[in-house]
Amino acid sequence: MDNSDDEMEEDETEWKNSFVDSAAFSPAAPVSGPSINVTPRPARRVILHFDLDCFYAQVEMIRNPALRLVPLGIQQKYIVVTCNYVARERGVTKLMSITDAKEKCPELVLVKGEDLTHYREMSYKVTDLLMSYCPLVERLGFDENFMDVTEMVERRLDQTVESDRISFKGHIYNHFSADVKASDHPRLAVASHVASELREAIHNKLGLTGCAGIATNKLLAKLVSGTFKPNQQTTLLPENVSDLMGCLSGLRKVPGVGHQTAKRLQALGLISVKDLQLHPLNDLIREFGGPNAQRLKNLALGVDDSPVTPTGAPQSLSDEDSFKKMSSTKEVLEKIQELLSSLVERMHKDGRQPQTFRLTIRRYTVTNKWFSRESRQHPIPSPIGQKITSGSIEDAVVQLVPLAMKLFHKMVDSGAAFHLTLINVCFSNLQTRGAAVSGKGAITSFFTQSTSPRKTQDDSSQSAESHYLDHHQVGTCNTMTRHRAHVFTKSSSSSEATLQEGNQKASGCNPDETDNTASDRLPPNVDPEVFKILPEEIQKELLSPAYLNSLSSTLTSPSVAEDPLISNIKASQMFTDSQNIKETKEVAEKLDASDRATTVNHQGPAGTSGVQRESITKEEKLPLHPSFDCEFPGNVDPGVFSELPSDVQRELMSEWKQQKPVLKTPSSRKPGRSLTAKDKDRKAAGKSSQTNNLFKYFKPS
DNA sequence: CCGGGGGTAT
DNA sequence: ATACCCC
Fold first, then answer.
1. Residue A613 has what DSSP assignment?
2. How does pLDDT run across A425-472, given as a tens digit for each residue?
3. Which helix (H) or strand (E) holds A611?
4. Which of A195, A206, A198 is nearest to A59 (CA)?
């Protein structure tokens, strides 16, 4: 049936794969009996790729809106790693040296970007926001996210009256023909609306703009997302896949083909994507081995069956610095201390306990053949690890330094001369304390109504049946910073809204819920007018008790001060000077203006403004709402929680947050917990207390 | 092929 | 522990 659905290059691999990859099935396909007799639809996936515009620069422009008006470059060492579009107009490009950049654009304003803290935090806010709509989100670097929206699209489609005309939002790749009628691809069309709404959400709530690509796999979604550059989106139709691939200027442009691979391919005489497409597989197999050869060839064809793998919490935290020259043990020691101090603090905020420490160096070499890093790692004695999580940060650093130096001496003979250009410290093997092994019951059962329902988990592989349900609880926040993003999110829509009927009208969602209620509580130094136009996130920070507290000189109760959720907050220093406030207003207006670019390539009155409400289908009116929010497990009594010692609170928070999406199933690692039982709890509790978030604990009395 | 991250595969 | 990949 429906061969109609697959017309092209999309491989059989994907087809075959759909027997294995439950995610590839449409939800409509029930789990049949023991044997598969339900013909699986090819189950083409629908994948979104989001790519934020000049991410670091955007973050800096939010922190200091005055920067929006000038050519801005983000500087790391002697390199401009990225720059805003004003600077790009003047010829500045990514990864340009400072000297070249200043030559091109003498007025270039540079902001140091070596400390990634702000970028990392904003990055996770974006991922969290996306995850609140659908848990299948995979990060790629700080500024890109993949999302598998196959099910979401399927659901919308089911609710769409067939007679409804579906149009595309944004551009369609290579689609010149005057006819818009591409509703031959309803799923992609619906997905383009989803992408558009998600970009809007990112803009409204976080103040960030970006591009999106809509396609049937990750490779294609990523490649197509960049075709219309700032703040636009593009859908790739299957019939245009080979165009897209053919247009790539070289094999290096194919994600997954790195420097080394490209060189090896070149040795085989392959330069262009087409070369690779047409090359005999057997030759490739000799060079790269079976699976890899097939993979490479598939990539050249635009075929990619790799799943969107939910990223979850990071598996390692590291901190590094590079420099021209370091040649004495003393310098090394001091640098290691410096790096460890910040790393341990970050680790502490994360809440997990690292089991492994690694030291990496890069030596200078005449034949400046770059990289070549060396590393040594060692288990972290448990007592030290505990000091990190418990907050004895200085102690932990003091004890880790000798360990690091030992590793250093395993690599460097300090008796001889040496010349380092980089040092990196890294924690890995991050363990969530609590439930699984040791005192699981002890603390957790404290809150559990029905004692001890959770067994160790084993977890179960995620099978097709469980897949759908898993959606709801799976996407928990994983790090402190990620959690924080939600703490201040007054869940705009009811958290557990069943996906089908989001009928509650636009649910208190957006409509100026700049709420009046909020503006009375504004900090004294904030102009209400300005406040209104700020991104939601910033509004929340300003209203947060933490920020208010910070206004009044010294800090309050130790328990509050110690809490990572609080201490983490350095609400925008930008409002300390009133000048910035005015500029914020201008900037926000500008932002709005720049936003109305996206429109169908050739459809309707060109340039439809973002303001005008288009006709469109039912589907469009369905509010896109987060499928859950993730504060406490539902069985936690907030009152009880608030009475606990702060480090116990921290431990619990950590435990709750570390839950990884079930999909990940790290083969050898500690099993992720089965969320099924939890899900029920969460759901049940969700109804009774929609205000089940941390906000109230911090409410100023 | 820098920069300060992060990932997986071997 | 290294090599490769991504941004």
1. P
2. 999 999 997 644 432 222 222 222 222 222 223 333 333 223 332 333
3. none
4. A206
How many CB atoms are closer than 10 A to CB A89? 10
Catalytic residue among A144, A345, A541, A620: A144
The reply to whether A114 has its C-beta less than 7 Å from any atom of strand B is yes
Q: Is the CB of A324 under 7 A from strand B?
A: no
Strands A210-215 and A47-52: antiparallel
CA distance A629 to A176: 42
Q: Which residues contact A353 (CB under 8 A, 6 or more apart)?
A: A385, A386, A388, A389, A430, A431, A432, A433
Determine the Cα angle at A459 with ends A429 and A436, to 5°: 50
A465 part of the active site: no
Task: Please give the angle made by the CA atoms of A461, A467 and A471, to the nearest 5 degrees.
Answer: 120
| Nearest nucleic acid nucleotide to A81, CA to C1' distance | B3
| CA A223 / C1′ C2 distance in Å | 30
Q: What is the pLDDT of residues A167-176, one digit of tens each?
A: 999 999 988 7
Residue A690 has pLDDT above 50, yes or no: no
Share of chain A above pLDDT 70, in %: 54
* pTM of the model as a whole: 0.67
Cα(A486)–Cα(A631) distance, integer angstroms: 7
Q: What is the pLDDT of residues A505-539, one digit of tens each?
A: 223 222 222 233 333 344 444 444 444 445 555 55
C-beta atoms surrounding A330 within 10 Å: 8
Where does A480-617 show beta strands of DSSP type E?
Answer: none
Q: Please, are residues A678 and A473 in contact by the beta-carbon 8 Å criterion?
A: yes
Q: Tell me the residue type at A426.
A: C
Q: Which residues, listed in sequence order, are joined to residue A655 by a DSSP beta bridge?
A: none
A96-97 and A79-83 strand pairing: antiparallel
Query: In angstroms, what CA-CA distances link A584 with A112, A224, A516, A579?
Result: 21, 33, 20, 9
* Residue A119, CA atoms < 13 Å, CB-side half-sphere: 19
Percent of chain A with pLDDT over 90: 51
Longest Cα–Cα distance in chain A: 80
**Per-residue tokens: A392:** 């004895």
Protein-proximal positions, strand C, CB < 7 A: 1-7
Burial A572-608, CB ≥16 within 10 A → b, else e: bebbeeeebbebbbebbeebeeebebbbbbebeeeeb
Position A559 pLDDT exceeds 90: no
Q: What is the dihedral of CA A75, A78, A83, A88, to 10 degrees?
A: 160
Cα Rg, chain A, nearest whole Å: 26
Buried b (16+ CB within 10 A) or exposed e, A425-461: bbbbbbbbbbbbeeebeebbbebbeeeeebeebebee
Mean pLDDT score of chain A, rounded to an integer?
68
Q: Of residues A559 and A120, which shows the higher confidence score?
A: A120
Task: Name the β-bridge partners of A428.
Answer: A316, A356
Choice among A34-48, A78-92, A190-204 with the minimum mean pLDDT: A34-48
Q: Which nucleotides of B are covered by protein (CB under 7 A)?
A: 1-8, 10
Spatial strand order in the sheet of A96-97? A96-97, A79-83, A72-76, A109-112
Q: What angle do CA A651, A655, A656 make, to 5 degrees?
A: 120
Task: Give the three-class secondary structure for A335.
Answer: helix
Contact between residue A287 and residue A293 where contact means Cβ atoms under 8 Å apart: yes
Residue A639 has pLDDT above 90, yes or no: no
